[in-house]
Amino acid sequence: MAEESSLIKAGIVGATGYTGVELVRLLLAHPQVELAAVTSRSDAGQRLDQMFPNLRGHCDLVFAAPDVKQLGRCDVVFFATPHGVAHAMAAELLAAGPRIIDLSADFRLRDAELWAQWYQQPHGAPELLPKAVYGLPEIHRQQIATAELIAVPGCYPTAITLGFLPLLEQGLVDVDHLIADAKSGVSGAGRKASVGSLLCEAGENFKAYGVAGHRHLPEILQTLNQLAGQSTQLSFVPHLLPMIRGILATLYARLSDHSKDLQAIYEQRYAAEPFVDVMPAGSLPETRSVRGSNLCRIAVHRPLGGDTAVVLSAIDNLVKGASGQAVQNLNIMFGLPETMGLQSISGLP
Ligand SMILES: NC(=O)C1=CN([C@@H]2O[C@H](COP(=O)(O)OP(=O)(O)OC[C@H]3O[C@@H](n4cnc5c(N)ncnc54)[C@H](OP(=O)(O)O)[C@@H]3O)[C@@H](O)[C@H]2O)C=CC1
Ligand SMILES: CC(=O)N[C@@H](CCC(=O)OP(=O)(O)O)C(=O)O
């Protein structure tokens, strides 16, 4: 009789999107995972490697329409879908057995009313919120290990939260005037057709959006409040850059305690973190140095020794900002080395 495989069987709902196909790339290279099911409604029946030629020679899977019965045979199911989809399927799927890692915003906010306000539709599964763990390993590693349902943080929230974290944990800044000026590549908007993502709209152009209030704001504040142990105020302005991958967040905070060595504080806080690189004093993190890698590279500055801390935080939105962070969560949940399958180095130039 054939031996039952000890590999973790993984399924992906929404594997034709940018985060979905990035998950496929990462999971195919993961030594402890067998990719068992990939879904797409519009491309059901098509082979993955016909649609994504980078997968030729690595994968002979075929997209199927999402089916709880088939996905229920997996050990873990990733949702790489627009918000609302995991709400609709999660309860039935959890009852069938798999653990869930949701890349969408469905379970990120603890407050269902707040979610409904920002996402302009009722929360579809408030009864599951007590089970959901916000999957930022640098804060919630212990809870992730035993979680059934992970809400993978958004891309901007990952870059911004990791950047502010040491300052807030140590109570070093005025929490009423935090500023996050963040820039993202166009893949952040997903693969679906939209005018704003066309080359002629996004190329050779640079603009802010969501200034009146972006849906990542309540998510970021939820974690900043937790870190600070009090209510915080943040001005957050996202921008669209004419590049494909990457986020650079420039963060400003007014120091309330001027006596501390910020470089030493950042280095100590992240010394044991495999995916946060605190760069030497004076460094300028750049998106190309994290492209395709799961790293968040951070540099902390104090211009002219003044009373403002300026933190630069760079990630790849599709890796540490989504699919890589999802795999980091999987590793923690299944007791694997946290860096397994995630050690690729960005290519330069
Ligand atoms: N792009 C990024 O940088 C980041 C994205 N995210 C989040 O991750 C999620 C996926 O994003 P992204 O990959 O960019 O999205 P895309 O628009 O590129 O892909 C969405 C995928 O979901 C599938 N899908 C859409 N509607 C449904 C449905 N009702 N039921 C089942 N499957 C559906 C689509 O396939 P089909 O329609 O054929 O079924 C497609 O495979 C989103 O919630 C996004 O906000 C989070 C962090 C970063
Ligand atoms: C450039 C761009 O359009 N970025 C997207 C962020 C995508 C994302 O991460 O969405 P969720 O975290 O909510 O899932 C945006 O601003 O809406």
Describe how the helices and strands are arranged.
Elements: E1 8-13, H1 18-28, E2 33-39, H2 48-51, H3 68-71, E3 76-79, H4 85-96, E4 99-102, H5 112-119, E5 132-134, H6 137-146, E6 149-151, H7 155-169, E7 178-184, H8 199-202, E8 207-208, H9 216-228, E9 234-240, E10 247-254, H10 262-270, E11 276-278, E12 296-301, E13 308-315, H11 319-333
Parallel strand pairs: 1-2, 1-3, 3-4, 4-6, 5-6, 7-9, 11-12
Antiparallel strand pairs: 7-10, 8-9, 10-13, 12-13
Helix pairs in contact: 1-11, 6-11, 7-9
This protein binds NADPH dihydro-nicotinamide-adenine-dinucleotide phosphate and N-acetyl-L-glutamyl 5-phosphate (X2W).
Terminal Cα span: 51 Å
CATH topology tier name of the largest domain: Dihydrodipicolinate Reductase, domain 2
Low-confidence stretches: none
Largest sheet: 7 strands, mixed
Output the radius of gyration.
20 Å
Q: Structural class of the helix and strand makeup? A: alpha/beta
State the helicity in percent bands. Answer: 25-40%
What's the arrangement of strands in the largest beta sheet? Answer: 8-9-7-10-13-12-11
Hetero ligands: NADPH dihydro-nicotinamide-adenine-dinucleotide phosphate, N-acetyl-L-glutamyl 5-phosphate
Order of helices and strands: EHEHHEHEHEHEHEHEHEEHEEEH
The CATH top-level class label of the largest domain = Alpha Beta
* Shape verdict: globular
Number of domains: 2
Mean pLDDT: 97
